[in-house]
Amino acid sequence: MGELKDKAKGLGNEIAGNAKQAAGDATDNPSLEAEGRAQEKKGELQNLKGKVKGALGDKV
What region holds the CsbD-like domain (predicted)? Predict the structure, then answer.
């Protein structure tokens, strides 16, 4: 169950991060772009965590 939860959170953060980056670029707001990049990276790590949990199965 943790695998799917982590992957879902990760995907949500990646999508939100990409949206913030696009909004920051469109409005010439480097702070918002940086925030979006950070959120996207957080999402990528959450997704990776979910994949590791899936690979290890119930041992985690």
Answer: 6-56
Question: For the segment 18-50, what is each residue's pLDDT rounded down to a tens digit?
Answer: 999 999 999 999 999 999 999 999 999 999 999
Domain of 41 in residue numbering reads as 2-55
Q: What is the pTM of this model?
A: 0.85
Side chain identity, residue 29: N
SS3 annotation, the chain: CHHHHHHHHHHHHHHHHHHHHHHHHHCCCHHHHHHHHHHHHHHHHHHHHHHHHHHHHHHC
Tell whether 47 is covered by a domain.
yes
